[in-house]
Amino acid sequence: MQRILVPLIFGLAGVAVLVGLGTWQVQRLEWKRGILNDIEARIAADPVTLPADPDPEADRYLPVRVTGRIGDQDPLRVLVSQKQVGAGYRLISALDTDQGRVLLDRGFIRVADAIPPAPGGPVTVTGNLHWPDDRNSSTPENDVAGNTWFARDVAQMAGVLNTRPLLVVVRSVSPADKGVTPLPVDSSGIPNDHLEYAITWYSLALIWAAMTGYFLWRNRRPKAEG
């Protein structure tokens, strides 16, 4: 009896733990979906004027409308890739406004394309404040001298373009910034892998239960055959 009871308890405990982990991931999935819905609603809200002293946490994704002139300096080129388009650059320019000089993420051009001139005169930008976290352990250091950037480091870019450490990501600009396709802020870059994790834990629970059942069946076979 003991040789059956101990593996049974061990098997049931393992299944319970794995099912519990899967259920926790389902709960985390709903929690993350709520956060992403809140972010999307915040991104799409009516734009406001640029705050005097925005906070990187409280004002992340804040929609703003600002008028200014795009600076004459060559834009910084951030290497990115677009689905069905391929490699290209985000163009980061300086924008001179009544609230000071800020960074402007104008949007995307292909790698092979020449950098188009910015609109002359005043422009009105509708976009979102952002403090992006583009860097991970495999991201190369930015090649400042060669003007090839691999991450939008707001502080570093602000130092190069002599702006406030503040980035506005364009949703639309008037008059149009011809030749540049806006890459507006959205929640697609925020990972939400909890469904995959839940499926993994539930699958392991099923495998654990099957292995336990097979082990118990093997242990009972000699008695059944005797």
UniProtKB/TrEMBL annotation:
InterPro entries: Surf1/Shy1, Surf1/Surf4. One of its GO terms (cellular component) is plasma membrane. It is found in: Cell membrane; Membrane. The keyword Cell membrane applies. Keywords: Cell membrane, Membrane, Transmembrane, Transmembrane helix. Pfam families: SURF1. The chain crosses the membrane at residues 199-217. It is a multi-pass membrane protein. Its main location: membrane. PANTHER family: SURFEIT LOCUS PROTEIN (PTHR23427), SURFEIT LOCUS PROTEIN 1 (PTHR23427:SF2). Belongs to the SURF1 family. This is SURF1-like protein. It comes from Lutimaribacter saemankumensis.
